[in-house]
Write a structure and sequence with these properties.
Shape: globular
Largest sheet: 6 strands, mixed
Strand content: 15-25%
Number of domains: 2
Number of strands: 11
Structural class: alpha+beta
CATH architecture of the largest domain: 3-Layer(aba) Sandwich
């Protein structure tokens, strides 16, 4: 997991590519993927999109990248879900280095009231906790990491996987979190992510499965997953211990 394939890192390859651009140049994620297919075909698409996220100063999920280098990693400005240009420090907003609240969650769903906004903030806390304690879910489960890009809010097309992990057999595990009750619609979401990882990330023989973690598993979710052997369901419980200080 994360071994360097070529004599240059993906970080170095992309930096060289960006150095050839002018401030007027706009390129898409597909342009970058095609460039790698033609010149460095062994690099997976997920690795490419992960690095685009890291280099984009206005991408909130870049905070999870391990090797963010102020200045050297601040190379791109993300115009929309698919297009990029060079970062202009004179006119563009300051780069994101720390966590900031999102207006919308990474899966594109809208929040309509304070309770839902609270739940989303809570989901991020749960996400960060579980990413550091994956052994609570399964022994030897590890967070995916490749060249400093890790599996927290891992970009999958125009959406984000809550947690992408690797199990003891070096197979992928897609983890989706719901802080309240889990309904059957999350099955379509996680199946889409599983399919994306199979196509864009997995090597030959590498399997992909999913785990859904909710505060409460609804009956319709249990029924929807009854025939999906690649999806497991978990409910979580939280406890608080208070200690009085005199």
């Amino acid at each position: 997991m994360g071994a360097q394939i070529y004599d240059k890192t993906v970080n170095e390859i992309m930096t060289e590519y960006f150095n050839k651009l002018t401030m007027n140049d706009v390129f898409s994620a597909q342009d970058m993927i095609k460039y790698f297919e033609e010149n460095y075909p062994k690099v997976k698409e997920g690795t490419i999109t992960g690095h685009l996220m890291k280099f984009s100063v206005n991408a909130p999920s870049r905070i999870h990248c391990r090797n963010i280098n102020r200045g050297k990693s601040d190379l791109l400005y993300k115009i929309d879900e698919n297009k990029y240009r060079l970062y202009n420090k004179m006119t563009d907003p300051e780069p994101i280095y720390i966590d900031k609240p999102r207006i919308n969650p990474p899966n594109g769903e809208q929040h309509s009231n304070d309770d839902e906004n609270y739940e989303f903030a809570y989901e991020k806390d749960l996400q960060n906790f579980l990413a550091k304690n994956l052994k609570l879910i399964e022994p030897e489960l590890k967070l995916f990491e490749e060249e400093g890009i890790n599996g927290i809010e891992f970009p999958a097309g125009n959406r984000f996987i809550d947690i992408l992990a690797i199990d003891k057999n070096n197979d992928f595990v897609v983890i989706e979190l719901k802080v309240s009750k889990g309904y059957d619609r999350v099955v379509g979401q996680i199946l889409r992510y599983i399919g994306w990882v199979e196509q864009k990330m997995a090597s030959d023989g590498q399997k992909v499965r999913g785990i859904i973690i909710c505060k409460e598993i609804s009956e319709d979710l249990t029924l929807a997953c009854s025939k999906q052997k690649e999806i497991e369901l978990f409910e979580y419980e939280l406890s608080v211990k208070l200690k009085k200080i005199k």
